[in-house]
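For the sake of clarity, the format in which proteins appear in this thesis is described at this point. The fold follows as a row of integers, each naming the local backbone shape at the matching residue. One such record is shown here in full, so that the layout can be seen directly:
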Amino acid sequence: MPVFKYMTFLLRDTWRSADRLKLLDDSMPILFLRGAMDEMIPEWHMHHMWHIATGKKDLSDHNGGARRFVTFPNGDHNNLCMESGYFEAIAEWMTVTETGWSALGSGNRLG
């Protein structure tokens, strides 16, 4: 995959994540999940998105844990969900975030 970084001029899709983050209400819960071995999304990009979302440079929880950054040391872009603790991190965040399930909407409940 790293060889593709030299062909980015061919990509037509744009991901305006930073612009979208700026539109969210400060109370909106956000969970950032990052694989330290991600070959597609550089570390600096995730840190930049976190800074936009929280106004913080450090990666500690924000807003009582409603905004959280979790890094998986061995995760890459395509296997992150297979990392130990991945689903537990999501479940814990959903538990901590009182609006987590209601943010899905009443008609979109899982289970």
Summary: The first helix runs from residue 17 to 23. Residues 34-98 form one domain.
